[in-house]
Amino acid sequence: MTALPTAAQAALAAVVLTAAATDLRRREIPNWLTLSGVLAGFAIHTTVFGWPGLKFAALGFGLAALAFLPLFMMRWLGGGDVKLMAAVAALAGAENLIAIFIMDALLGGVAALALILIRGRLWRTLRNIPHIFSRQRHEELEAGNEKSLGMPRAVTIAAATLIALWLIHRAPAP
User: Fold this and answer.
1) Contact at 8 Å (CB) between 97 and 170?
2) pTM confidence score
3) Which 8-state DSSP code applies to residue 63?
4) What is the pLDDT of residues 17-59, one digit of tens each?
5) Which partner from 111, 136, 138, 158 sits 20 to 30 angstroms from 43, CA to CA?
6) SS3 (DSSP) at 135
């Protein structure tokens, strides 16, 4: 994992914690928050490192676009989740985004399974598996649909990001 300037760490924590709170409360991630995170990522890294910092933020942002836009187009992720990952990527960089993505996938899987069991949707979820890759849209599989599981993804994104920040902070200096 790549070390980050203190300002980037603080901005990253503030963005993901605010996103998690609004996602839990209102089931939305505000555009002003994600845009602020993206702009902060570019500004902080460019100010601290110059052109290499701009490249660092741009590579993270670009990787997020490549990884998460297809998931949005397939309606597996909501637009707010994709924009949040773009903000995380601009602040954390590509290498850290990969680690955050892996942790988020693990945390998201555990959280989804727990939510499925708590809400008594196990059989319903298993019946939906064949529909995942079909061309025909199934409303229970679309992010943001009232009939979907409705898991606030910003919470697991925030948890994964905070774990990554903790790991970065604990890593020995090169």
Assistant:
1) no
2) 0.86
3) H
4) 999 999 989 989 999 999 999 999 999 999 999 999 999 999 9
5) 158
6) coil
